Every structure is written in structure tokens, then in C-alpha cells.
Amino acid sequence: MIQAILVFNNHGKPRLVRFYQRFVKEIQQQIVRETFHLVLKRDDNICNFLEGGSLIGGSDYKLIYRHYATLYFVFCVDSSESELGILDLIQVFVETLDKCFENVCELDLIFHMDKVHYILQEVVMGGMVLETNMNEIVAQIEAQNRLEKSEGGLSAAPARAVSAVKNINLPEIPRNINIGDLNIKVPNLSQFV
Amino acid sequence: MALKMVKGSIDRMFDKNLQDLVRGIRNHKEDEAKYISQCIDEIKQELKQDNIAVKANAVCKLTYLQMLGYDISWAAFNIIEVMSASKFTFKRIGYLAASQSFHEGTDVIMLTTNQIRKDLSSPSQYDTGVALTGLSCFVTPDLARDLANDIMTLMSHTKPYIRKKAVLIMYKVFLKYPESLRPAFPRLKEKLEDPDPGVQSAAVNVICELARRNPKNYLSLAPLFFKLMTSSTNNWVLIKIIKLFGALTPLEPRLGKKLIEPLTNLIHSTSAMSLLYECVNTVIAVLISLSSGMPNHSASIQLCVQKLRILIEDSDQNLKYLGLLAMSKILKTHPKSVQSHKDLILQCLDDKDESIRLRALDLLYGMVSKKNLMEIVKKLMTHVDKAEGTTYRDELLTKIIDICSQSNYQYITNFEWYISILVELTRLEGTRHGHLIAAQMLDVAIRVKAIRKFAVSQMSALLDSAHLLASSTQRNGICEVLYAAAWICGEFSEHLQEPHHTLEAMLRPRVTTLPGHIQAVYVQNVVKLYASILQQKEQAGEAEGAQAVTQLMVDRLPQFVQSADLEVQERASCILQLVKHIQKLQAKDVPVAEEVSALFAGELNPVAPKAQKKVPVPEGLDLDAWINEPLSDSESEDERPRAVFHEEEQRRPKHRPSEADEEELARRREARKQEQANNPFYIKSSPSPQKRYQDTPGVEHIPVVQIDLSVPLKVPGLPMSDQYVKLEEERRHRQKLEKDKRRKKRKEKEKKGKRRHSSLPTESDEDIAPAQQVDIVTEEMPENALPSDEDDKDPNDPYRALDIDLDKPLADSEKLPIQKHRNTETSKSPEKDVPMVEKKSKKPKKKEKKHKEKERDKEKKKEKEKKAEDLDFWLSTTPPPAPAPAPAPVPSTDECEDAKTEAQGEEDDAEGQDQDKKSPKPKKKKHRKEKEERTKGKKKSKKQPPGSEEAAGEPVQNGAPEEEQLPPESSYSLLAENSYVKMTCDIRGSLQEDSQVTVAIVLENRSSSILKGMELSVLDSLNARMARPQGSSVHDGVPVPFQLPPGVSNEAQYVFTIQSIVMAQKLKGTLSFIAKNDEGATHEKLDFRLHFSCSSYLITTPCYSDAFAKLLESGDLSMSSIKVDGIRMSFQNLLAKICFHHHFSVVERVDSCASMYSRSIQGHHVCLLVKKGENSVSVDGKCSDSTLLSNLLEEMKATLAKC
Lengths: 193, 1203
Fold this sequence. Notes:
Helix content of chain A is 42%, strand content 18%. Chain A is α+β, with helices and mostly antiparallel strands. In chain A, helix 2 (83-101) crosses helix 4, helix 2 (83-101) packs parallel to helix 5 and helix 4 packs across helix 5. Helix content of chain B is 51%, strand content 9%. Chain B is built from 47 helices and 15 strands. In chain B, helix 26 packs across helix 28, helix 29 (499-506) packs antiparallel against helix 30 (516-540) and helix 30 (516-540) packs parallel to helix 33 (566-587). At the A-B interface, strand 2, helix 1, strand 3, helix 2 and helix 4 of A face helix 1, helix 2, helix 4, helix 6 and helix 8 of B.
């Protein structure tokens, strides 16, 4: 079982927080902070497994994480999950994000947290791995996006116009913070059909 | 209304959407909190509007704020409103918000039940999907109970997208509502063979989670999982299954044996590291579960260790970490194989990654031997010096102690060295583990008699340098070692060289800064020391010397009398008075030494930690019984007329007190506590000494002087541990030389005499004799102590509720609650339309339910036995180590007595059995084959009719009163063979796809070469085609997905599509392969003919007698019959044979007449009536296709003719 999935940036700002076990919100924030500090002090070239954060408890649990450019993707899992499998799952998730957002960057995650959640929901459900086949995941997401579009979407035309007007006053939003090298060593991604 | 709408949409123009909110927060970095609270106010306004789009937008923003840590529980009701929107866009937002913020305590959650039910049954698969996803995060026991049935229906949804989600969510439902597990389980099991890989993977996932917690209930699924493991190509599924097997093998060692081979093959063939790693892990689990010392498994261990070495040597730190992790599992059972990689593991101790260093440390535990212990510990000691963080250093410290003390100090040859290591460890500042070192010092000094002299000298040196320890390290607990030092010096004072010096050291004023419990030990042991000094002085006749010591005591003890610690104070006052008394006596020249040392006469022996618990209760002593008659609560009860009741009460006096008024008891307890608290003489349940220290008034004013002395500890005149290593080497060298000499002498002697096997002189552990004769005093245990105490399962484990026996048939009361208004009428025989193989015996049909309870119980028992048998047979393809523990059914007829005794012997040879769809055919192996031949000989000698089979297990539930255990037979038939390879095959119909059969071909390598590049090419006919991978043409061969090392066999499965099944047919094929051995490689070929009989298109399908009767009545079946003479076999065996070879099931059996049923893969019903005459059997058949029937009967005739 996956206990929690956390995504935060190099400064510890949460970008996605998904708990599959109930924690009160203060504890949730504390877990995010603690996990961030645990992960931050580790070099990039040491192993991606961490034993026992004190909050998500017990020796049965491991933190498995990957670091992409500005973002950390952290999965907290118990011993029923394969460590390398989860590493690959993170890769699948990130590559799916990359496909759905077309060259994903941190800003996509910042402004479209809801969409990121919807993508995650097609990968992991209730703490269990739902689908690992990227094509299948992307197909389902696209189908749902089409459905949403046919319904007119949440922000119909007028609101969009307003937001376009609002955009004018803003300093230029940097688009170039790319999530970076997706092709980090993945021992066996291609094996997961 | 219209106006309102317009107004709403105009308002919306100025509403922020999620992006605006995020942007706003980013632009208000300085006053973020203020900005957000302003946004929340806006959101509250938006939620008040009627426009659902506005609401949805607001809820979407709330979800974001929730992530940032803001409370959104107040909006729970609005979230539900958005969930119930008709548009998918809004619904999705609602469910997302709910999944992030709802939990069991959310009170409005019960309002969602009907909405969720509606969404679950929505025609749009994405509505359903979104509801399932959301529900998986906030399902409560109530929701689980109310929706279990709806979700169960969704498990058979037409869309795989829904099916997989429904399957997955079932795990959550089971957790919250354990009663649903049994009714849902058959369907879940069915999903293991779902055509969609996603659904299959989900089902595997759920069952693995379930089985991980309660593995024994899922053992019966092992055959199914085994089949999946050998056929699946999805690595996720494989990993899960392999992990599951790792959990199952400890329960069933025979399963492990079966697994080793396919797992080894996987290890060889896979390129995915994750799969490789899990395979290795499970092989390790298997090897652990098997009794060690099996020669053929050493190869597997070697393989694992080899592969792990590759992982550890990899530059990828992750693989290195996992390699070490798995290595530590092997270590427990096969330390030798890991020890050979010592170099590598020691190397990892220097890794920059702390996770890896810790793993390597774990491994060291098992790497040590008598030979290398000193060397390893020396290395660790250098690490201790280098270690930067205290956590890692503490870890090192505990590991050093662990590896030295393991299995009763097995590896320590020189305890002087160990003591000096411990003393060196006391240099560690800031460690939390002072008490660990102290415990070791005490343990060694007490249990190793020979070392006491040395230990005492070291400890006195420690006491001498106490100022260092006491001052700068008081807070971090290293001063605990002084506890041990003081005790050892006192208890074994006879070994002290300068007792007077030590006595002075222990009476130093600085000692009073130590924690109370250490001071107390000081005080007590000062007296012991004093006693022994007195004795010495008196014996030497130095009266002044003796008096001087007494004077020293009288001078110094008062500092302890003033101690704030009660224990210290009490002991010190006592002893001070004692010494003063001695002083008086000494003044009168009375010899006192004898009497003083009598105070400490006798030896203290170590007592085993659990000794107290294990004292058996003496016979005749009832600890629960009342010593006195229990007092009756009220006088009135003693009245005469109630004597009858009174008597009854007396009969169970044990229950009386528990019935006493609880409140009253609590009140009394409270009163007693009060009383105790006020009683100064009552010793309270030990609060920590530190605490007591603080509690005492006035202590905080006593200044604690911190003295910082950074002089490292050196024990003058005593060798440091490093020197021991050198000394030890020299000693060993000498020993070896001596031994060699002796050996030479002996050899010469042997040469003179008979020549025996000359063993090579190897230096093993046993050769190293310990430096000093160590007699480890064993711990004391009470006489006739009880054997080990079991540790109970945690009663609070949430998964305990799921510990449910899944093999029992369902009872009425266990059905899932169904919403009444959507209840469909249950048909009389549930399997009539959709025969579901898996379910067949699970749901007794209605008629049967009316049967007497007794009968059902009997059936249940039978069924259970059957289940156990199934598994036993499946597992027993390799000979079990002990006589097979298969629960043999009680024989009811004489003839099965014979069969049973023989079956016992033949368990080993079980090649397969009649329940083909339940358990995949076990693979043939060479040695098994031989065995079978052997037993065949045996059979003849016993005059057992050859070829008799196991009675049909499953189908007999309606008839067949007796059960027989018969020699099993394989359904695998020989396909072709040559000197390289032997092919056997079995053809099975599959229910899932129409007109498809699976051909399982077992390839056995009989040569000494490796067979690889195997390809199977089959010439398709018009009627039968082989299913080939996409893009390959009809003439291409289909590769066999494995290689065969010499002597190994493996199974490959191929699917064939059949157009018409009414006729048997044959397909020609060729197996081509490359045989490679030392001399080179050759291309070889083997031709074969696949024979598809009509029987192979049939699938054993159970049928109830009412459905059977209806089928016959319907009249649209054509009929045909055969008769075979000269049959001597018993009717039971005959039926079993038909069931086994022709895939029928018995519907009903009356005397020597039975009706049987089967179904073809294309849905033809086949009904048989089998009658047995004197020496003949007649079979009448009815079938919806006459050609099929006549062909079938011909085949059956051939089978029966052999009987």
C-alpha cells in the first residue's frame, strides 16, 4: 500500500499532497515539512530510499523519492510494494505529466493542481497501484478532458476573458523552468508494458 | 429566475478561478495569510450562490487551500452539493475535494450514500470511475456496508476501466466491512483470470494485500497464482505474485520447492532489475522455509548471492542498497555463503551514503567468525572514531556489542580483548548507550570466571578515572559504565591488586555528582571492598592499617548520608552506623573481619531473564481460588429461604469477585492510593531516580560543578585492544604450528598403519582454541520450567477482522445486504445461464439449503478435506521431506482401504488430478517419471487395477456418498521425443474466449546441452489456428519464452482458435532449437502432431439436477449411445475416469447409474447417462450437436475399453 504521495519543490513548498491514510491537517503539514527536511539533506547521487520518517510510522514503511530539477516526488510505501517498482511508478507518473502538460514544468503543477490530481487518480487509487501502462493512463485522461470540454469546462468564456485581462498586468511568468532530465537512470522502465 | 441566472454569470466574471487564486497568493508573498483569509471570505460568498458552476469553482479553490494547510471541513456540505452536480466537470471537482477532506468523522458523509450509489450505476463510465476513486479515499464502515453489493456488481462491468477500479476498491470495503469478504471473494478470485491485464493486476493487488496479513487463508490459491506466475508477462503482476509467494512459503515448505525452479528461470531470463530483485527475495524466503542442508539448493543460494553481489557492485546506489538488504535475509540461514563476500560488505562500510552504511552494518552481524572477529571490530572501532553523527556512532556501538555478544559470546576467543574494547568504548562522548556497555561488562565479568581478575583490574582503572566520566558526560549516560565498574570491583574484590587505592577512588567527593542509582551501588560496594581489606589487614596482623581504613570510611561516608537520593541516603546511614560499630570493636582489639565478610558471603549467579515467568504452578495450587470464603455483599442474602440460590453461587466462587461493584472497587483503589501516597514508609512504584532527584526540595541550590578534562582515557600498564590483535595472531600462529606438528606425527603414524582418508589441513573456526579456558556460567532456570511462552497476536490489529476462512461455503446470513427495491429475483439454479467454474461449490442452491443442518455440516467437512487435498496434490509433485500430512478422507468401503494405503506412498508421484481447471497441471520432471514407473511396478504386485484414478473431487457434491483416494494420473500426454528433448502436452478449453483452447506444452531437456532459441511452428488448418503475436505471419515460428539448461523442464502455453469443435483434429508442428554444449552448437528439429480430441473442447461444468432435468426435457438434444463389455473396474473409478479424461462432472448418482454433464467451449450441452451392468457399461448421451456427441462417445469408448 502507498501511504502518501507528496510533491514539493526545492524550497519545501507543497505542490501535491495526497494522503491515503487519515491524518489531521496539522500533522499533514508537519509530515510534509519533515519529509522535506529528510530528503533535502541527501545528495542527488545517493540511494532513493529512506527508512522511517518518524511521522508516517514504523519500520514497515519506507520513503521512496525522486528528484527532478526543482521538484521532489516522494512516495511513502509499506513493505508490500517493490522498491524498484515504486521508483518506476514515479517515473511513469512524471512522464505522464510530461505528456499531458506537454513538456511539464513546475508552473504547470502550481497552476493546475486539480489536473495533476486527476492524473494521479488514474495511476494510484486509494493507495493501490491502479495502472502502470502510460498509454492507457493518457488515453483515459484525454477521454475525460474531452468530456469536460464538451460540457463547456469549468471556466467558460467570460471568466477566461477576465483572466486574460488580469494576465496583462502581471510580470512575465517564466515558462522555462522545465522539469528537467526525465531520462534519469531508470533501471527497467521499458519492462513495464 | 432568468434574471438571477444572468446576475450569476455576471458575478462570475469577477470570480477568481484556481489560477487566479494561485497567482494572487504568489503576488502577496508578504501578507499571504491575510490575502488567503480574504479569498476564503470570497469563497464563502460564492458558495452561497445557486449557480453550481460558481460553487464548483469555489470548491476547487478550497481544495488548493486545503493542501496549504487550511481547514475546509466547514464546506463539507457544499462539497456534497458539487458532487451531486449532473455535469462530469463539476462532479469530478466535488469528489476530489471530498477525497482530500472527508474522513470517518465527517458527519455529513452519510448523506452521500445515495448520491454515490447513483453515480456508481451511471451510464457514463467516467461518472462511475470518479465516484469509485473518490469513495476509495473516504469509505466508512457504513458506506462500505451499504455500497458493497453495488460495487460487487461493478466487478463484472463490461468496461475494464470500471472493473479494475471496482476490484481495487473492494480491498478498502473489506477493511471497513469485513463481512463482505466471503461473499465477494469468489468473484474476486474470478477476476484473477480476467482477460484485461489491468483488471487482473488489480485483483492480484487486492489478494496480495489480503494475503499478506492472513496468509494461511490464501494457501489454496497457490496453484492459481502459480499458473499466473508462469503465464503472465506483466512485471507489476509478477512482482506482486512473487512477493505473495514469499509470504506463503513459510506456511507450506512444499510450495517453496515447487517455486524454486520457475523462479530460478526468471532470475536467469529477466532483464528487469525490480523483478530480478523480488525473485531473489522470494527464493531466499523459500530457502529459509526449507530445512537447510539440502544439497541441490546450494546452487540456488549461490545464484542468489551471486546476483546480489552484482547488485551491490552496481554503481546505482539504489541497487546497492537493496542488494545489501536482501543479503541480510540470506545471512540468517546461510551465513557461510554471505561470508565469502566479506570484502565487498566491508567496503560498503566506507560508502558515503548513510543508508548503505547502516545496511552493511546489519550484515556484519553474521559475517563474524572466531577468526575474523577481532579484525572486524578493529575496523569498526576506526569507524567509531571517524563517525561524524551521533546516530551513526551509536549504531556502530550497538553493532559492536551485538556482534561480540551474539550467541553467548560464541566468537570471542579472548575475553581480555573484549573487556578492553568495552573500556575503549567508554571514551565515546554523547552516546546514549552507556547502559549497554555496562550490561556487557557485568555480564562478562559474572559469567566468565576466568576473566574476573583482568576485568577487576580494568574496572578499578575506570573508577580511578571517574572524574572524566562523571563530569563532562553526566548528561549523556556514559557514566552508566561506572555502575558496572563499581559493582565488579566490589563483588570480586579478592582480585584487586590495590584495594585500598580503589576504595579511595570510590569515596572521592566527586562521586556524589553521579546519578543516584550509581551512587547507591558505590555505597554498597564500598562496604564489600572494605570487608575484604579488613580481612587482608587482619590476616597480615596490621591492626593500625585496619583501623586506618575504618577511619577513612567514617570520614567519607557522611557525604553519601547527605545525598538527596533516598536510596543512597538510606544505605549510607546504615553502613555508617555499622562501620562506627566496627570501629568501637577495633578499639577493643576484637577481630571483626570474619563477621564483616560474612555479610557478603556466597556467590551471586545469573538468573535467566524469563526464569520468574517460567516457574510452573505447583500441582494443587489454584492462584485464582479464594483463600478465605468471599465475603457476601449484603447480609440479607443469607436468609434461609434463598438457600437454593446461595448454593449455586458458591459453586462458582471465581466469578463472584468480578461481579462485585466496579465502582466500589475503583473507589477503594483510589483510597488506597491516597493512603499510600501519604505514607512515608511506603515504597512507591519506582519513579526514575532522576525525577526523584528533582522532586526533592532544595536540591536545585546545590551547585553542580562541571569539570572539563579533555585528557583521553589511558589505562597505564595495560595493553590496548589493538595490541591484543597482534598478540592473538601470535598465539594462533603458535597454536597452528603445534597442531601441524601433532598432525604430522599422527600422519606418520597413520602411514605406518592403515591409510585412512587424509583430510586436508584447513584452518576452520574450530581450530582456534580460546585463549583462556572460558566457562560460561549458564543462567539459572527454575526446575521443570515451562517451554517457551508464545507471543500473542496484537488484538488491536485492524487486519485481524479479515482473518476469515474463505474455503467454507457461504451461509445465508453472510449474504451481502441488498437494497430491496433493486432486488432481482434469484433463479432456482444460479449457474444455469452463466456457469462460473470458480463459484460452483460456493453457493449451495436453495433446495439444499432446506436440508438438515447435519447434512450440510458433513458436506462442509468434505469440501474442506477436498480443498486440502487439492493443494496437497498440487504441491506434492516433488517428494515431501516427511510423510505427506495430507488429511486422508475416512474410507467407507473396503476396497478403498487398499487404495488409501497405496495412495500414501504415491502422494509423491501425483502427476496431476482430475480438477484440471482448479489447479494447473504440474510439470513433469525426470525423477518423478522414474518414480511413477516404480510405483507402477508396485501397483501390479499389489494387484490393484492399473490406471484407477482419484475420485472426481468437485462434482460429487450431489451424489457419490463414498470417497476414494485413488492413484492420480496425468492428463499430459506424450507429444514427441528425441535424445534432446521430450515434449508432453495438455489441452484445456478456456471459458473466457469462445472457441479457444490452451495447449500447455512441457519441454524437458534430456541432453547435457543447453537448449535455446526454441521455436514452435505449427501448420494451421482451416479449422484450427494458432494465435500468434501480432505482425508475425502464418509461417513464422513462435518463440518459446525460455531456455532450458540440462535436465530442466518448463511449460509454455499456446492458444489455438478452433472454428468447429464437433470433430477431433490433428495439427502438424515442428520444434526447432539450438543445442549448445562445450563442443559447439547445433540446430535440431523435432516434429510432432497435436491431437485435439473432442473431449479437450469440453470444460468441466457443474450442473444441478433440476437444471439437468430441464435440459433433458427440452427435447432439442440429439441422442446416441454406446456399450462396452469386459469392464471390471469399480463404478466409482469408472466415473472418475470419465470425469478426468473427458471433463465431465457427476450430476447425480444412484447405485450403479449416474448422470453426468459437461459443456463445450462453444456452449454445447452434453448430458450422459452411465449405467453399469455385470461386466459392461452402457453410456447414453444427449447433446445439442449429434456429430460432436458421436465423436465424443467414440473417444469415451476407447477410454473405457482400456479399463
